[in-house]
Write a structure and sequence with these properties.
73% of the residues lie in helices and 4% in strands. The chain has 162 residues and is mainly alpha-helical. A two-stranded antiparallel ribbon has the order 1-2. Helix 2 packs across helix 5. The protein is flat and about 55 Å long. The relative contact order is 0.09.
Amino acid sequence: MIHRFEQLTTGVSQIYKNIQRIKKIEMRSLGLKGTHVMCLYFLYSHPDGLTAADLCNLCKEDKAGISRILSDLEEHGFIRYTHPQDKKKYRSKAVLTDSGKKQSRKVNRLILRAVLEGGRDITAKERDIFYRVLFMIAGNLDKFCEELEESSNVHFQLNNAE
């Protein structure tokens, strides 16, 4: 049982580190950082734009991180904001500029190349099973974390009530 834990954490960690390395190497050639990849990807996938809150949810990043990334992208001229009169910048949608779309197309080509390399020699059936099982594990661990947090909060409240 513990061996499975070791295999899972080591395998996921190795994949994550390699993805980070690919982002770093490839983004440097575009004058960007690895952290910009997912924002450019999602903004390209949503031509009407996304709010910072939308990007936080999609990229699984915190508000401060997304704010820094959006500031960088705006500074490079890759995004602009829609500014409805009654909304703050955080609630405004970021949309790609023509330059941002051009960079995003490059990013998407790099993503496609990495996906093809990562999936080399894997059959479609193996890939389907892998993703199904991966997301089952992710869902199970999400539920387990929620239960841990709930029991931890109850335990904390009981200890502080004494």
